[in-house]
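Bench notes, afternoon.
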Amino acid sequence: MLRLNQLYFRNYFILFFSTLLVVAFIGYIILKDLEINNHKTMLSNMIDLVHIKPTDDLDDIAKDVKDRTGVRVTIISDDGIVLAESDKNKTLMENHSDRAEIIEAHQLMSGSSVRYSQSVKTDFLYVAKPMLLGEQNLYFRLAYSLESINKKFYNFWAKATLFFALSMFLAFFVAMRINRNITQDVNNTKERLTDLLNKNFEVEAYTTNTREFHTILNQLQQISKKLKKREEQKNKYTKNLKMLNKKQGDIISAISHEFKNPVAAIMGYAQTLKEDKDISPVMEERFLEKISKNADKISDMIDRLSMAVKLDNDDFKPKFSKFKLKSLLEDVKETLMQKYKDKEINIDVKDVTLYADNAMIENLFINLIENALKYSEDEVNIFMKEEKIYIEDKGIGIESRDLSNITKRFFRVGDLSWDNSIGVGLYIVKFILKLHSTDLQIKSEPGVGSLFYFDLKKMLMK
């Protein structure tokens, strides 16, 4: 493991060296492009200044331009034959019709390219333009060596290397001083941490070198005070943890109990059908109906548990649409009356249009109305007042001590029990209303009945 000064020096070296390479490379590219563009413009302007007469000797023209500018000159015919050359024997030169700058000049009236010269061992910038000599078309080409650009880069690299060496020396010197100061602060911090591990919360510690370590040690002082208080509260937290574990066990037990009854019923009826070969068709149909109903109970409990978990994990998002409230309630009534044939559901609501999640609101009313049907002995009333909707039952009511907990997940009134009740129905209702920017209100009196209601104002279509 590296020490702080070594780590600082290594990281500084890597960062600076990488930055130097990137800057040098980018600088070289930018410098080269600038130089090439500048010389391309210069060579193009030189060609524009050249005027050739039909009586002029092309070789003399090439040498004259070479003498005055120091730039290599080549004059090429329209079919690529070299007519004049300032630096080489034109008779030994290849046909130039396939040269990139000649092709571009033929198409665009001006062409350029950069190529490496095997004879001179350096890159050249070639610029060519077409000219008309009497009735003859030819190309006037200038070539400029790019060796000077490389020299500029080498000079830039040498200066950057010198700067890098000086920076590394300074970084090493600074790292050593920082390391000495930090080592002292680290030792102070280690001593303080050792005190905390030994539960010695009264020992003072200080630092005089860096503000950061001073802040750390001050924070450790605060932690010491908090640890002292938490040590005193340890037994209390342990007790709360045991209570939480017991509560979770109760929830699992409640769910297990509710699943056990319908499963036991299904197994009992199925076993009877399997063993009794002489059972009458009427009894067989009745047993099969019992199995089906208990299977529906299990399915309904699973659906409610699944929805409660998804809502709790924020996996449901409302899908808003327009629908009629009264039609939705009639559909819910029709569904529930098949299960509660001896009960009555009275609907007295306006034929208003809601803008909400149709499936969620339907699920909400199923939970609320079915909950009321389970409590009520005869009927459940659904009505509206001042943009609020009410579900009223004349059942046994809810004790005031349970009202604040009735909408919590897995909460069930202790002395009540009914089929398919795992304590998530009202929790789902509360969550759905929260997604629609409203909340559930409950009024109840033991022995009289309960009233569940919520505001429809934000769902109503005006």
